[in-house]
């Protein structure tokens, strides 16, 4: 990757936003490994940094949370010089991370984005639900999710499978919208949740991975991790032989 080495010779530092996969180091792509290895500074959440910990030797590491990430970005932006900074994201940078990526662009200007393998891809594969015949919805945003809820209803009514990332917000119950809240919401909207097939995956690709499969109604009394993905399975087999 010659372009990484060239960046070291420029007067301005470079910033990369990279996806490191759902959690297992095996899902970190070769290009992301090379970018991290050639970097000087890495800013990330604990879980994300743990995924790439073997690549972080001799790096300037900033472990951040939602509360202090802004301070870390601002500090590095003022001291980056001609260094290379990497901000790793769990999964893929281009899914459920736009609010942070937009802020990085505001602070650093030219941010190069390198995609990763998303948990939604892994969940779809394990549930055998094709993404191109499904609706992908994330509730993992800080702004209103009311339109997202309507989008979920419409997708299910139209017969689509739905791959969904719920929203954990235990400190503010009105914004908390995890599996149990989603099941109750759909029942309240008139859906027959006792006949809706659903998968819930937690900690995908790691040693802690779990897989629940059942009906949406079953979720009303169940709690799942923040690191979980739902798949509403309405898939019907449509192999090429059916179109001859």
Kindly list the characteristics that best describe this protein.
five-stranded mixed beta sheet; Methyltransferase, Cobalt-precorrin-4 Transmethylase, Domain 2; five-stranded parallel beta sheet; 22% strand; disordered N terminus; Cobalt-precorrin-4 Transmethylase, domain 1; 8 helices; alpha/beta; 244 residues; single chain
Please tell me about this protein's structure.
It is a single chain. By secondary structure, this protein is of the alpha/beta class. The protein folds into two domains: 2-117, Tetrapyrrole methylase, N-terminal domain (Cobalt-precorrin-4 Transmethylase, domain 1); 120-232, Methyltransferase, Cobalt-precorrin-4 Transmethylase, Domain 2 (2-Layer Sandwich). It is built from eight helices and ten strands. Strand 8 (197-202) and strand 9 form a beta hairpin. The longest helix has 12 residues, at 146-157. The termini are far apart.
Examine the secondary-structure arrangement and name the CATH architecture of the largest domain.
Answer: 3-Layer(aba) Sandwich
The CATH superfamily of the largest domain is identified as Tetrapyrrole methylase, N-terminal domain
CA-based shape: globular
How many helices? The count is 8
Structural class of the secondary elements? alpha/beta
Would you report the number of β strands? Answer: 10
Q: Please give the domain count.
A: 2
Strand order of the largest sheet: 3-2-4-1-5
Q: Just give the CATH class of the largest domain.
A: Alpha Beta
Helix proportion:
25-40%
